[in-house]
Amino acid sequence: YSLNDTVVVFDRVREYENLFKTDEYNDVVNRSINSTLSRTFVTSITTLLVVTILFVFGGEVLKGFSFALIIGVIIGTYSSIFVASSTVVELRKAVPKTEQRRRVSRRGA
User: Fold this and answer.
1) Residues 37, 53, 4, 6: what is their CA dihedral angle, to the nearest 10 degrees?
2) Which residue, 14, 28, 58, 72, could crosslink 54 as a Cys pair with Cβ 3.0–4.6 Å?
3) DSSP assignment of 22-88, as one string?
4) Is the entire prediction scored with pTM above 0.90?
């Protein structure tokens, strides 16, 4: 579930990178999250509604399964909004530093 939302957000990041070439990467990611946030919440709430109904009215076998789905949807939504994007922004900040270190070490060698 988180993977699907994350793909949607990063697809929007790719789209906005081409549109806003002068903006910094974290601004592009922020704009992308903001534009997909309503879709993410509507999808998550709709899924949670159905799974909660299964949890309440389902049999004993469905209770454990639907509880796991409820937890997964909540954590997946949190992950796709907050964790994945910030991880990529931080990794992107670290990559140029690594490339600069390689260039400096090549010059010295």
Assistant:
1) 40
2) 58
3) TS-HHHHHHHHHHHHHHHHHHHHHHHHHHHHHHHHHS-HHHHHHHHHHHHHHHHHHHIIIIIHHHHH
4) no
Q: Which of 72, 74, 80, 76 is nearest to 6 (CA)?
A: 80
Query: What's the CA gap between 2 and 84, in Å, rounded?
Result: 9
The pLDDT confidence band at residue 99, using thresholds 50, 70 and 90, is: low
**Predicted confidence (pLDDT) per residue in 7-64, tens digit:** 999 999 999 999 988 888 889 999 999 999 999 999 999 999 999 999 999 888 899 9
Tokens coding 11: 């697809």
| Separation of alpha carbons 39 and 59, rounded Å | 31
Q: Cα–Cα distance between 53 and 77 in angstroms, integer?
A: 19
**Cα-based torsion angle of the residue sequence 81, 84, 85, 91 in order, rounded to the nearest 10 degrees:** 160
